[in-house]
Specification:
431 residues; 3 domains; 7-stranded mixed beta sheet; 9 helices
Length: 431
């Protein structure tokens, strides 16, 4: 049934398509006949030529339009409307002629040729209106189809986003459950290995004790990886609400947490005043701690030299952590932010392969970007974009704090703070 109805509509469309050129051909034949008749009856070749011209031009227009329609953008369903408008033009012109003739007190003597010319002109006017109307309706239909396509695409995207959110939630729940449930067996393995070493230590040879140490170390590293995976999975679901966060105070806390690592490596950390941004304070603290710790870890053989700075770009701040360490191959600039991706073996550098992936997840939650600019052997600069706080001024505070600004009570590490008033760095009481 559907196929037969479609075929009938196609036949109807074809029928209306041929009406206009047929009318044009008819008008041309009539023009030629009328001109020949006028020339043979009265011998007036000028009158015959004018009749031919005035009648053939509308006929050619109708014929040309009929041949042009199949190649135009007009939807075939609107061909009938064009024919209706063309016929309407003829009817309106006929009504005008009739009213003119019937008007009292007016003597009008329209010849047959004049009437034919006027009626053909009316057909051309109706044809033009019909074509314009059909084009407008075609464009309107195309816009409606595009809008409907956009609405369908939007609905599909909404459904995909809903499914993706549900999938991410299930994955986060799974990661949390798996991480939590795996910790207990690992703790049991570690406890029994340590118990075996204490109870039978004197009976074990050096190889056995080494094997036990390897197993305990492996269990501890696995526990660290599980903790990292748990933290990674909870970035979205367990994050705090966003508020104005003073990154200077956050960096103070980070350097306090890394105090012993800084002292052990004799690290030199310089810093510029940092801004206040919108974000989750706890996660931003984790972000800075991972970046500074990473800079210390991959410093190479020389004591680490690290610089923390910030630069404003419109409504965003770019916070950078630069080191002078071993650097990174540019080909690995994206890979290092993937989870469990390591560029070095455990014998070369400790780590779980989650730290930078966690940084990227935190930055993405803050609608920012993280990137690294580096070359092997020339150090690396990790840059993070964060939204500026609406309550903060355009520039970070440049006031140097003279009493232990980083919170580190002392040690061998050198911590410096750069002020805006002076271009140099000054020691701030961490000797």
């Amino acid at each position: 049934m559907r196929g037969s109805s479609t075929e009938s509509r196609r036949d109807e469309t074809s029928y209306w398509l041929f009406v206009i050129p047929a009318a044009g051909v008819t008008l041309l034949v009539f023009a030629v006949g009328k001109s020949v008749a006028a020339a043979s009856s009265s011998g007036g070749f000028l009158e015959a030529g004018l009749d031919l011209l005035l009648l053939s031009v509308p006929g050619l227009v109708l014929l040309g339009t009929g041949l042009w329609l199949p190649t135009s953008s007009i939807v075939p369903q609107f061909y009938r409307r064009i024919v209706a408008w063309t016929a309407g033009g003829v009817v309106v012109m006929g009504i005008v002629l009739g009213l003119r003739v019937l008007h009292p007190g007016v003597e009008v003597d329209f010849t047959f040729g004049t009437q034919a010319v006027l009626l053909s002109i009316g057909s051309i006017a109706g044809l033009g209106i019909g074509v314009n109307n059909a084009q407008a309706r075609t464009h309107a239909r195309a816009l409606e189809e595009q809008n409907e396509t956009l609405r369908r695409t939007e609905r599909r995207l909404e459904e995909a986003n809903t499914q993706l959110e549900a999938s991410n939630e299930r994955l986060e729940q799974f990661a949390y459950a798996a991480s939590h449930d795996l910790q207990e067996p690992l703790r049991m393995v570690r406890r029994y290995l340590e118990l075996a070493e204490r109870r039978y230590g004197e009976e074990l040879d050096e190889n056995c004790r080494e094997f036990i140490d390897f197993a305990v170390d492996g269990a501890e590293r696995m526990s660290e990886m599980i903790d990292g995976l748990l933290e990674y999975s909870r970035v979205e679901t367990q994050g705090d609400s966003f508020d104005a966060v003073d990154l200077d105070a956050v960096l103070d806390d980070v350097l306090t947490d890394l105090q012993f690592k800084i002292e052990e490596t004799d690290a030199t950390i310089t810093r510029e005043p940092l801004p206040t941004v919108e974000g989750d304070r706890r996660q931003l603290r984790q972000l800075l701690q991972n970046l500074v710790s990473n800079a210390i870890e991959y410093s190479g053989d020389a004591p680490p030299r690290i610089h923390v700075s910030a630069a404003r770009d419109g409504a965003e701040w770019t916070v950078s952590v630069r080191d002078e360490g071993i650097g990174i191959d540019p080909d690995d600039a994206d890979r290092i932010f993937e989870i469990f991706q390591r560029l070095h073996s455990l014998e070369e550098h400790d780590g779980s392969g989650i730290g930078l992936a966690l940084c990227k997840r935190i930055v993405e939650r803050h609608d920012g970007e993280i990137r690294v600019d580096s070359e092997p052997g020339e150090g690396a600069t990790f840059s993070v974009t964060l939204e500026a706080s609406a309550d903060a001024s355009n520039r970070p505070s440049a006031t140097a704090r003279s009493e232990n600004p980083t919170g580190i009570p002392g040690g061998s590490a050198s911590i410096r703070e750069r002020t805006e008033e002076g271009g140099s760095s000054a020691d701030v009481g961490c000797q």
